Amino acid sequence: MNALVREPRSQSIEDYLKVTYQIQEQSQWVTTSALAERLGHAPSSITNMVQKLQKLGYLDYTPYYGFRLTDKGKRLALGMLRHHRLLELFLVKVLGYTWDRVHEEAERLEHVVSGEFVERIDRLLGHPRLDPHGDPIPTEEGRLQETTHPRLLECFAGESVMVRRVSDASGEFLRYAAELGLVPDARIEVVECAPFEGPIRIRVQGKDHYIGRDAARRIFVERKNAKSSKPKRPLP
Amino acid sequence: MNALVREPRSQSIEDYLKVTYQIQEQSQWVTTSALAERLGHAPSSITNMVQKLQKLGYLDYTPYYGFRLTDKGKRLALGMLRHHRLLELFLVKVLGYTWDRVHEEAERLEHVVSGEFVERIDRLLGHPRLDPHGDPIPTEEGRLQETTHPRLLECFAGESVMVRRVSDASGEFLRYAAELGLVPDARIEVVECAPFEGPIRIRVQGKDHYIGRDAARRIFVERKNAKSSKPKRPLP
DNA sequence: ACAAAAACTTAGTCGTTCCTAACTATAGGT
DNA sequence: ACCTATAGTTAGGAACGACTAAGTTTTTGT
Ligand SMILES: [Mn+2]
Ligand SMILES: [Mn+2]
Ligand SMILES: [Mn+2]
Ligand SMILES: [Mn+2]
């Protein structure tokens, strides 16, 4: 009996598991269409691959319902996130990339760099905890510092907050955010929030900007010691 | 008529063209079996792919005879060599790899790094001309400084030579060579050559070693008539 | 010169990963 | 409750790049 069946681990499999992990961080069950959307594939392709990944023990799958990673699947997904985020930081800090250009490069590199490569850039970077967008980097053992910062959208007028994370889903948005100085560790004052789903007025480095709600949804912040204790209009 | 047919350029295609280039540097016509040997594939796989590459205009092929790269094929092959060799040097100089471990990593990375990545490491490394094994790095425009150094095997007793290039085909050999100090820019005195295909006695950094003919075939040297000043190279 | 060996090509197949089209199950609205 | 819109699955197929087995061409040895 040959128990040593070769375990395939293609680039496709790695991306499926990585993105599944990212989706299930928010919604308990991952759906076919959610993964199809994020990977840019037809839903039927997802069904096929998910069935294969279940056979390989990477996830638990209930037809017509959804799926979730097993521990084995999570371990692999966290490995990919570690590769991806360390690579992004490496590209910024060592090669001088801007933070809006690193995602595509890391998306390809993450699948081919060896463990040795990753550990070497980890050491070179001084064992960093966050990537250029403020996303936490899993440890080599697969531990991830969970972050649950509120969105800038959820803040009240008068609050003084600090940028902790910026969604890296769109390079265009990252360029816009950088222009406004909305980068991790930047201090923001929420000056006012227009009613009726209106824009938000913020002050960054002494300059005022009006940003839309979509933008404010992509910025995650940490509340500082509030200097105004009078919450005004909450933003739902 | 849509003349803008997408030009496929898979990892496989890139490796076929790169290795074809390396083979045709020495033998005018590249044969199916030579490429099969180097790529570790069955000969029939080579025939298939070569026919495809001819249709794509990357090489000229005469059945049962052999093939050669077209200018288009050469351009692509030189690009891959540039990627590969710059990556190898980068791994040694920036990430601290030893010169016997870089080939496998570069073999995978060469296909996924962007042009921007390559130009950034090129700048970081100061536009180097040689990789860690002494192989020349093609320029961005695809120009390659041809090197035709004689092999150590071809030297006579009494000659004083300088190592210029060490075959990177085997990691094991590279470890052995480094142990003996046989790295680019090392000075060697050929003390004696045993007759009847015997070993060669060399002196490196004051120490004598007997090396076999297979080893001496893998070392390329420059004959030193006088003291010439060449750019220095770091030890891997 | 000719038969055997070696080199090469052709034919047919397989695994991987994607697709479209057709089918099926679940969820909402009335 | 039922009927339909939506989400999900199955079926069938294409492109790619490898393989083995079988056939063809070229080279080699006597
Ligand atoms: Mn990826
Ligand atoms: Mn990121
Ligand atoms: Mn390669
Ligand atoms: Mn090399």
Detailed description of the structure:
Two copies of one chain form a homodimer. Chain A has 236 residues and is of the alpha+beta class. The first copy, chain A, folds into three domains: 11-69, Arc Repressor Mutant, subunit A, CATH 1.10.10.10; 80-145, Winged helix-like DNA-binding domain superfamily/Winged helix DNA-binding domain (Arc Repressor Mutant, subunit A, Orthogonal Bundle), CATH 1.10.10.10; 152-223, Ferrous iron transport protein A (FeoA) (SH3 type barrels, Roll), CATH 2.30.30. In chain A, 38% of the residues lie in helices and 16% in strands. Chain A has helices at residues 11-24, 32-39, 43-55, 71-93, 102-109, 115-124, 171-179, 213-217, and strands at residues 59-62, 66-69, 160-166, 187-193, 200-204, 207-211, 219-223. In chain A, strands 6-5-4-3-7 form a five-stranded antiparallel beta sheet. Chain A has a two-stranded antiparallel sheet with strand order 1-2. In chain A, a hairpin with a 3-residue loop joins strand 1 (59-62) and strand 2. In chain A, helix 1 (11-24) packs across helix 4, helix 2 (32-39) crosses helix 3 and helix 4 (71-93) packs across helix 5. The longest helix of chain A is centred in the middle third of the chain and has 23 residues, at 71-93. The radius of gyration of chain A is 20 Å and the shape is globular. In chain A, 32% of the residues are buried. At the A-B interface, helix 5 and helix 6 of A face helix 5 and helix 6 of B. One manganese (II) ion is lined by residues 85, 88, 131, 133, 135, 168 of chain A. Chain A binds a DNA duplex (30 and 30 nucleotides) through residues 8, 10, 12, 31-33, 41-49, 51-52, 63-65.
